[in-house]
Amino acid sequence: MFEIFTTREIAIGIWLFVFTVWVFSLDQMPSMIGNLVRTACSWPILAPFLVLTLYVCGLVFALYHVGYWDAGLLKTTVIWFLTIACVSFFRTPTIANDEHYLRNTIKDNIKVIVAIQFVVNFFPLPFWMELITVPVIAFFAATKVFSETKPEYASATSFLSGVLVTWGLVLLTYSAYKLVVDFDSFAQFGTFKDFLLPFLLSFALLPFTITFAAVTKYQTAFGYQVDSIIEDKWLRRYAKCVAVVRFHLRTKFLQRWTRDIRNRPPKTRTEVRAAIGRLIHLDMREKNPPTVNFSDGWSPYRAREVFKGNGIIPDDYHEGYIDGSWSASRLHKEITRGVYPCNVSYYITGKEFVANELKLLLNVNATESQEEALQELALLSTILFQFALCIDLEEDLFKKITSGIEFSFNEAGKEVVLSREEWPSGTGRSFTFLIRNAALDRTDLIG
């Protein structure tokens, strides 16, 4: 057995078997797993999974045909399929809603490939040591994954990361030692082809992942939105065909398009083409924003990039359907920890080519976090002030923001306001930092 599987792989297999037996011994767990299996075997899931399997078989056959793949790589191929391929498949609904899903998928795959290489190609420890260390490290890794979902466990996450990194360095040192004293064994055990295979397969899987994610997003947009918006069957089919042809893999347009036709349902083919063409035109404008005179306001597309480094990126700048105004927003970005974290929202409003109001809205959901939240609001306000007025925020204004002291003044034809509103429930309050053209009528500053 040790000639086919390493001591690490055998130890992992034993503990997986023990874990499986324990899971099936739990009350109601067999019925839950049965329901899960029946769901997984449903045609909407089974059909694309079979396509994935055929696609991977095609990749393996292609590698075999060019003389790269052989039976000795079967174990690595199976491990890769059960980890990277299957995980990518079942994560498709999530990555389909991620604008950076390609980049994130590559990053996640590299992490898994490193884990595969650790299992398959790193020098294993003696069997008894692997049998002890595998469950311990698995426990630390699972605990770390859980702690990362809870901001209040940040210190535990840091500790667990340190433990895992230390253990990784120990294994790396051990592998380096074995490499020096027993290089022939390493060369026989971990060939270059075996090492490179997961990278080749993962790269070749990307076209399938991208296409499947796009198909999933189209199905969601068409099935749950377009079908209920456009009543005429033939016009609906025409709209879907035009959307696929014009948008293809640029699925970011789907959400914008369905939002637009929900508010202005097209009645003719001309209106369908006009709605899609308008979105593509706006996308071109986003890539090459027109210049805006300072006296008029700000470029809404430049304003969207102000807090990019802070993870606060508003949605696309689009026309409203009540008063004809244009806007973009990023709502409820959490900036503190705890059960009720404080959050900040960023609003851009104006006309089609110019934004005339920029606003940060801080919601203090927990009084004990107010000081920290106001400090963050002051930092964000400093960035916004510098962008809007091209001068630095004065220190006394920064201190007023951190203290929650209201103020209002004009600077270079712009009105700068910090306002405060106590919630009727008495459970919290809001702070608004706003910059707008002074010529605008003074309306509700809280929004």
List keywords for this structure.
12% strand; disordered C terminus; 447 residues; alpha+beta; 3 domains; 7-stranded antiparallel β-sheet
Secondary-structure blueprint:
Blueprint: H1 7-25, H2 29-40, H3 43-65, H4 74-90, H5 92-95, H6 101-120, H7 127-148, H8 154-181, H9 183-189, H10 192-229, H11 233-247, H12 252-263, H13 269-287, H14 300-303, E1 318-319, E2 326-334, E3 343-350, E4 355-364, H15 370-389, H16 395-403, E5 407-411, E6 414-422, E7 429-437
Antiparallel strand pairs: 1-2, 2-3, 3-4, 4-7, 5-6, 6-7
Description:
The chain has 16 helices and 7 strands. α1 (7-25) packs across α7 (127-148), α4 runs parallel beside α10 (192-229) and α8 crosses α9. The longest helix has 38 residues, at 192-229. The relative contact order is 0.06. Helix content is 60%, strand content 12%. A 7-stranded antiparallel β-sheet has the order 1-2-3-4-7-6-5, with helices on one face. Mean pLDDT is 83; it is low at 441-447. A hairpin with a 4-residue loop joins β3 and β4 (355-364). The protein is of the alpha+beta class and 447 residues long. The radius of gyration is 28 Å and the shape is globular. The protein folds into 3 domains: 7-213, no CATH class; 230-287; 300-437, no CATH class.
Measure the end-to-end span: 69 Å
Main pleated-sheet profile: 7 strands, antiparallel
* Chain-averaged pLDDT: 83
Number of helical regions: 16
Quick synopsis:
By secondary structure, the chain is an alpha+beta fold. Helices cover 60% and strands 12% of the residues. The protein folds into three domains: 7-213, no CATH class; 230-287; 300-437, no CATH class.
